[in-house]
């Protein structure tokens, strides 16, 4: 088993997609996943099979599936193997597997997983001790806070966090602590759960006031902290100074308190006072949650024909569809300005329209629209028609349409239809294995490099019109 292949699968969603694995499990195809894990060395199939077997209490079979993956030392597989062994009550074997084999500072992920195994084995103090040396390197704080929740070690954890947080507050750019913005909300989380909410709010509020908020967006965390504890006036003040991070938590807090009318009035006042487009989406979402669909559309429809900025058409269509309002969402695709259609129709508007038609029982009408257009005008024409055929209940026609199509996407769509027919082994077989997918990727990048090399440069060379590079815009 090749660790590089395993990492490629995880990093590129290679092999059988996780959602396909889930669909197979939902339809009762566990044994097909076990076979694929063994024969294809497919990580997502293995992970799905292990999850299902553990849920059924079949820990021995789950370990047999995951053991060859864990034996490679690849950390995600080690983590999964440790989980199986702990649930199987083989604690010593689990801790031996979890213990990092190389004592090096760069193995932070392995030490984090080992600490979590120690917590689950009841050795919380050992877990805190093994992660203590890595606190100043970042990437473990959130995990340490999460794994120690409810373990009665909050004061011990605060003893570790307080000096690091204070050092970071004094000089975040010069203290030598890397990637550690998360120490501030981490400290607040532990203070909050240990009953020291006022102290958490005071410290993090001072951090926000001093503009100590980095990639972790401490303002948003602070807003949610205030909301959890009913500090509505403080939250309103925060929203006044930090619009993007705090307005939505403030509106949600009001809504949760039964003050939706006040939330709506607040948003409408903001929209009237500020640059158009900044808060319309929050108002639209609020109205949709209340079932006021026409008013929701009315609140944002002035953005629908914007060519570039603040266009909320697609967001509105998706939210309406989520509420089962497919016909209403479909109506928004009509009546658009010629300028907007020229820029967007071929890119996404028509495909969204056909999707909505398929969801609302108008698949045959959508197919007729597609077939009336030149084939070159419709991206993924065959895939779209196949999906619509399936929506219309014509599975065999859809399957026949997909079988000759190349590429992983067509194979995945075909697999979904086969799953619906209970043909699990066949569904997995039509998806290219990892080796074939990696070769497809290699060829793609090789071809693309050749196209770019063949394209005329801007360096002053004379263009050779006999060497015209293929159009690669659709690949960007």
Fold and architecture overview:
With 476 residues, the protein is an all-alpha fold. It has a domain at 261-360. The chain has helices spanning 3-12, 18-26, 30-39, 43-55, 59-70, 75-87, 91-98, 108-120, 124-131, 141-147, 154-170, 183-193, 197-209, 218-228, 232-241, 243-256, 260-273, 280-289, 293-300, 313-322, 326-331, 338-359, 363-371, 381-391, 395-402, 408-420, 424-430, 434-454. The longest helix has 22 residues, at 338-359.
Which descriptors apply to this entry?
single chain; 476 residues; mainly alpha; 28 helices; 67% helix; disordered C terminus
Structural class: mainly alpha
Give the terminus-to-terminus CA distance.
33 Å
Q: Please bin the fraction of helical residues.
A: 55-70%
- Gyration radius (Cα, Å) is 27 Å
Q: How many DSSP E strands? A: 0
How confident overall, as mean pLDDT? 88
Unreliable spans: 457-476
Beta-strand share of residues = under 5%
Using the alpha-carbon principal axes, give the shape. flat
The biggest beta sheet, please? none
| N-to-C order of helices and strands | HHHHHHHHHHHHHHHHHHHHHHHHHHHH
What's the helix count? 28
Secondary structure elements and their pairing?
Layout: H1 3-12, H2 18-26, H3 30-39, H4 43-55, H5 59-70, H6 75-87, H7 91-98, H8 108-120, H9 124-131, H10 141-147, H11 154-170, H12 183-193, H13 197-209, H14 218-228, H15 232-241, H16 243-256, H17 260-273, H18 280-289, H19 293-300, H20 313-322, H21 326-331, H22 338-359, H23 363-371, H24 381-391, H25 395-402, H26 408-420, H27 424-430, H28 434-454
Helix pairs in contact: 2-4, 3-4, 4-5, 4-6, 5-6, 6-7, 6-8, 8-9, 11-12, 12-13, 13-14, 14-16, 15-16, 16-17, 17-18, 18-19, 18-20, 22-23, 22-24, 23-24, 24-25, 25-26, 26-27
